[in-house]
Amino acid sequence: MASSTSRPHSTALSVRVAGAADAAFIADCNVAMAFETEGKQIDAALLRDGVTGLLARPQFGFYLLAELHGEAVGTLMVTYEWSDWRNGLFWWIQSVYVVAAARRNGVYRALYDEVKQLAQQSLEPVCGFRLYVENDNRAAQQTYAALGMQRCDYQIYQQGG
């Protein structure tokens, strides 16, 4: 992944690749997101370890951080999936969260624009972006659709976790 400098999306909104100093904010966002979207209480200590674990392993992905007037207001994580069918990587957008007071201000759009920009700069081939969203989270679904993302024909199954 190429490194990006902070680029303003408006005079007050900027996005940058997150670092170790951002781990507590990212973990707090993930705790809030799990509760707001799924009503789940997540083990905060385990989550902090998971955030720092990814930050220490850039081969697995990265986090972006959005700042409004210099204050952290949103984050997302990108992880990688190789597609042999396409000879490229899908970048999975996960752990998306924008603090309530900053919603409807283009924060997610700025984060998504940065993901696309970083993908264009990537030395590895990026063939597309994917994400999953709770079935009942209509607001998020509308946001993703408005940015040109389309619902897939796949369902997600898992074992464990």
UniProtKB/TrEMBL annotation:
<dbReference type="InterPro" id="IPR016181">
    <property type="entry name" value="Acyl_CoA_acyltransferase"/>
</dbReference>
<protein>
    <submittedName>
        <fullName>GNAT family N-acetyltransferase</fullName>
    </submittedName>
</protein>
<feature type="domain" description="N-acetyltransferase">
    <location>
        <begin position="13"/>
        <end position="161"/>
    </location>
</feature>
<dbReference type="Pfam" id="PF00583">
    <property type="entry name" value="Acetyltransf_1"/>
</dbReference>
<dbReference type="InterPro" id="IPR000182">
    <property type="entry name" value="GNAT_dom"/>
</dbReference>
<keyword id="KW-0808">Transferase</keyword>
<dbReference type="GO" id="GO:0016747">
    <property type="term" value="F:acyltransferase activity, transferring groups other than amino-acyl groups"/>
</dbReference>
